[in-house]
Design goal:
Mean pLDDT: 82
Number of strands: 8
Largest sheet: 4 strands, mixed
Low-confidence stretches: 52-65
Structural class: alpha+beta
Order of helices and strands: EEEHEEEEHHE
Length: 158
């Protein structure tokens, strides 16, 4: 999956490879991502506080571990594009699963992030915020103080 910011649409783009041999370009609005990011950070912090002791991500100047370097996914003229309207969020002891859904509430792609790769993924997403001149308040600790309901249960972010 390749993350980028689209200045024309004012959206973050997620270009991904899908089976069989296809590509999908998912567009996410600032509103949706502002609702999703605190859950991702909270999940990372909860995991760090648990028995695994993985270093946490809190938007500071810490350098997160690198994601596996792969060839970027570059959309072409045949790449299907969709606006993501909701994300199903679920987690296990080792990873988070994000199921990206369209306006018809159909899951179009899933992303599995291990807790070791989550900080780098969040860092890449935060760079999209900076590139788009979006407010980065969502990354601040004030949003993380809230107690989220259903932390251990799957839920949908709109």
């Amino acid at each position: 999956m390749t993350l980028s910011y689209d200045a024309d649409e004012d959206r973050v783009l997620f270009a991904c490879e899908v089976e069989p041999d296809g590509k999908l370009l998912m567009q996410c609005t600032r509103r949706l991502l502002n609702n999703l990011v605190p859950y991702l950070i909270r999940a990372q912090l909860n995991h760090a506080e648990g028995p695994h002791g993985v270093s946490s991500y809190c938007g500071e100047d810490r350098t997160p571990p690198k994601l596996d370097e792969r060839v970027p996914v570059i959309p072409d003229g045949s790449t299907e594009s969709l606006l993501v309207t909701s994300v199903d969020f679920s987690s296990t002891a080792n990873h988070i699963v994000l199921a990206w859904k369209d306006k018809d509430e159909v899951s179009r792609a899933s992303l599995v992030l291990t807790f070791q790769s989550l900080p780098s993924w969040l860092n890449a997403l935060q760079q999209c915020y900076v590139t788009g001149s979006w407010s980065t308040e969502v990354w601040a600790g004030a949003f993380l103080q809230e107690k989220f309901e259903s932390e251990d249960q799957p839920f949908t972010v709109h």
